[in-house]
## 1
Amino acid sequence: MTIKISKVPKTMRAAAIDHFGGPEVLTLHSLPVPVPDPDEVLIALHTAGVGGWDADMRGGWWPEGRPHFPVVLGTDGSGTIAAVGSRVRRLQVGEKAYAYSFNNPKGGFYAEYVAVPATNAAPVPESLDLKHAGAIPTTGLTALQGVDDALRIRAGDSLIIHGASGGVGTLAVQFAKARGARVLATACGADAVALLRRLGADVAIDGCGGDILAAVRDFAPGGVDAVLAFVGGKELTQCLHAVRADGKVAYPNGVEPKPRKRRGIEIIAYDGVPGVAEFKRLGRAVEKVGLKVPIAAAYKLEEARKAHARLAAGHVLGKIVLRIR
Ligand SMILES: NC(=O)c1ccc[n+]([C@@H]2O[C@H](COP(=O)([O-])OP(=O)(O)OC[C@H]3O[C@@H](n4cnc5c(N)ncnc54)[C@H](OP(=O)(O)O)[C@@H]3O)[C@@H](O)[C@H]2O)c1
């Protein structure tokens, strides 16, 4: 196996866990740098995204199989390609790339290096720097696929984006507007509502205290065409009441409690998926929109536990990231 490689050390710093627990179980480790297989790339990471699913995994939720400790968390990030496997042609050593690999077999993104399948990585869109690109692989793909694939939003559609001030929602608002939708977005608190207005929502309301149904009556008197939900619960049920007959509701798996079935409304659960075509479409959408990526806070790699404590405190407007280089 020939691997094209830039100068890569044998060991790296990584924020890893030796057992499940609270934010305090995230500690700095020295671990071997993963070696890429023929179809993989090694990325020298600049930024890693921090998501609620990382905290779930840290706390003991595991998608499949059993973890092999120490576990390096993190599903996405950005950096520079440091090595490519012998079969990789699409990405070059030295190129800036961003990537998404959920429960990555060779370790996650809270580290100086990550080895991922080349199809899970793509060149960074020109309009984004590494910090902002590293914040969006998971959230950007999930937001765009919710708008385009799950709901098939068309120009003129009326859409509620519920729970829109977080990592996925802040991007979904912008993608839905770019597809020509009329968007009513919900968030909690005046600062979050103001952010959604700045991101282009036609109407932004407080979904924690406000009357969602009253707002929808003005926005779409016959009911909305669709709902894209990033948080579950009784307010999401209110949103369902606001959907017209034959309308649609979509949510990415992970949103709890899930919306209950309702006669006359299609309910779609989906996952954000990476891939060559998926990243190309994301890249085009990022450029078309001039995507704004709200970053609520950035922490050093060795402060990963602080990042998780901040996540647990809630009211994160946009995304939390780790600064690795
Ligand atoms: N399956 C997949 O492929 C996939 C991929 C990505 C994400 N997901 C899932 O998608 C969901 C969203 O992810 P995310 O990273 O965007 O989460 P997030 O950052 O926590 O966003 C959720 C937002 O909803 C807001 N919210 C809470 N209650 C609300 C209410 N009653 N009305 C209006 N807004 C409310 C929260 O605001 P406050 O914090 O101020 O309460 C928060 O900003 C999560 O469940 C995640 O697990 C799934």
Note: Residues 144 and 215 are 25 Å apart (CA to CA).
## 2
Amino acid sequence: MALTFDDGPHPQNTPHLLDILARYRVKATFYVIGQNARRYPEIVRRIVAEGHELGNHTWTHPVLSRQSDSTILTEIDRTQQMIWDTVGAVPVTMRPPYGSFTHRQMQMLFDQRNLSSVVWSVDPEDWRRPGVSVVAQRMIQGARPGAVILAHDIHGPTIRAVPAALDGILARGLQPVTMSDLLAWPHWGPRGLRYVGRATTPYQG
Ligand SMILES: [Zn+2]
């Protein structure tokens, strides 16, 4: 199963979460917003240095289903480029903000950039701030082999729910892994990705 955290990095909450994940020796996937990644590059580097995975969550977090194809590609490309510039690697998956993405757009992005779109199977609705214990319980209840849990590392209560959630998930014999591990894919590109701007050679690891 995979724990995924969207919308960061956040200057306090994301480092706090990384401390917790390190204590539990658990890897997660961070769908970062490109603008935030530009603002906090040291946190992006720490995410990768500690064995976690990055995903692309667009540059400005728009409702993609209302955007043109060229806007979608710009949102994705700017974020891929920023991540490449920061850590020398590119994500292999993207997550559309709000899960709002048409099938045609998903296919367009895959055809144009060979980038797969990933949503989730468990939504604890942590953004509604239902309270720490409710978020933890929803994560535990949704956890099963192959589950993809959505959470947001910009919310303090979500971070405070993670230790109890991990206690429950690990007690059930489940091992949280990154999205690529769940899919048995390489953690990073190249996957036929094309770039705008500077020509770069994608990281091969
Ligand atoms: Zn989001």
Note: Helices lie at 13-24, 34-39, 41-49, 69-87, 103-113, 132-142, 156-171, 179-183.
